[in-house]
């Protein structure tokens, strides 16, 4: 028995329109949510056409071998940034003329694994063992409109195709639950003196990796309460009956960071020679959506955790891409700089209670964002529907202009020896070492 995909009814109309307008084939992404029982598809998005591709199509009959795999995976990476917690790229689709249908499934299989590989490289979190790893390959004949849906296990490179059910449903997200929180960020990332060429992007990602583990260990209060992870998220809440239309329920979440380690854990301090530091500061707005079919608390918390991690990682990526475009990949001078991270905004989607998101630099006009939604998501939006959700967050890159003096080097050596002697002397001594390290760090980085 294969998986079942419940699909927003409007997607059927969207795919039908694509089949009449685009010849002889078109590819795209399926966006939705996985659950243990079934998967939900809330959006289908065509791959943006390339000018070169359009010229080739006008010259002669295209072949599926001419599919631009890199272009499609890049599109998937861009789209994934615009998805709130709980939503992901569930698979790919292809609408093809009958003469191309024979090779369609092989092309789709290749695309599914390429897209997943590209997306997994960017993640700062790892999928759990019980997570669904099947991804959908939807093939539609442009002439007969026949729909064939199969799945592949992206965790198994040798995975064979399995049949899946494709069922349309109206108001699919009407009873979904939205969760939102604000997370205050103050991340200090040291730049090691041994790091070649002050690789800011690599160091930032390493620092975010450490921070993401802290987010995984946070305590989440849902509407002011700590909930058991295995209980139902909607337990005890009123259910809709009769003709009353259900509406999206919103849960406010508070994120509590654990300040200390467990009493049984060993605490050690490390002293490292650094050439500077990166400081990320601000308050980020995070949001996640979860299906209304008896969702577990752990599903909701996991979706929100991933949105917290993704939103900061994504906007750092966007900032570095912008810096490369404006300053070039080989920046020689390493000076103190302040940069503003792009702000997050949310946009409602017609016919759905789920909102999509994007990121805006301060000098970006609303028209540019509207164009991006059309290009990336094939979704026109109104300027008045662009809701900026947060204040400005910053990146402060602080170099140490002078090399350590002889006195500082002596202090460093002394501190290192003390750490080696005291690292096994219990939590009290470990705490003292941590204080010593913080004092040294302050002296070392101060102007």
Strand order of the largest sheet: 7-6-5-4-2-3-1-8
Number of E strands: 17
Query: Ends: how far apart?
Result: 66 Å
Contiguous uncertain segments of 5+ residues: 240-246, 402-447
* Secondary-structure element series: EHEEHHEHEEEEEHEEEHEEEHEEHH
Beta-strand percentage? 25-35%
**Apparent shape:** globular
The major β-sheet equals: 8 strands, mixed
Radius of gyration computed on alpha carbons: 25 Å
Integer tally of domains: 2
Q: What's the overall average pLDDT, rounded?
A: 82
Q: How many H/I helices?
A: 9
Helix content range: 25-40%
Structural class: alpha+beta
SSE map:
Elements: E1 4-8, H1 9-21, E2 25-34, E3 39-46, H2 51-59, H3 69-81, E4 88-96, H4 104-122, E5 134-141, E6 147-153, E7 162-163, E8 165-169, E9 177-192, H5 200-216, E10 219-222, E11 249-256, E12 274-290, H6 297-327, E13 337-341, E14 343-348, E15 355-360, H7 366-377, E16 387-388, E17 393-399, H8 406-422, H9 426-445
Parallel strand pairs: 1-3, 1-8, 4-5, 9-11
Antiparallel strand pairs: 2-3, 2-4, 5-6, 6-7, 9-12, 10-11, 12-17, 13-17, 14-15, 14-16
Helix pairs in contact: 3-4, 5-6, 8-9
Keywords: Membrane, Transmembrane, Transmembrane helix
InterPro entries: ODR-4-like
Family: Belongs to the ODR-4 family.
Q: How would you describe this protein?
A:
Strands 7-6-5-4-2-3-1-8 form an eight-stranded mixed beta sheet. It has a six-stranded mixed beta sheet with strand order 10-11-9-12-17-13. Strands 15-14-16 form a three-stranded antiparallel beta sheet, with no helix packed on it. It has helices at residues 9-21, 51-59, 69-81, 104-122, 200-216, 297-327, 366-377, 406-422, 426-445; strands spanning 4-8, 25-34, 39-46, 88-96, 134-141, 147-153, 162-163, 165-169, 177-192, 219-222, 249-256, 274-290, 337-341, 343-348, 355-360, 387-388, 393-399. By secondary structure, the chain is an alpha+beta fold. β14 and β15 form a beta hairpin. It is built from nine helices and 17 strands. The protein has two domains: 4-52 and 63-169, Cytidine Deaminase, domain 2; 176-236 and 246-261 and 270-399, no CATH class. May play a role in the trafficking of a subset of G-protein coupled receptors.
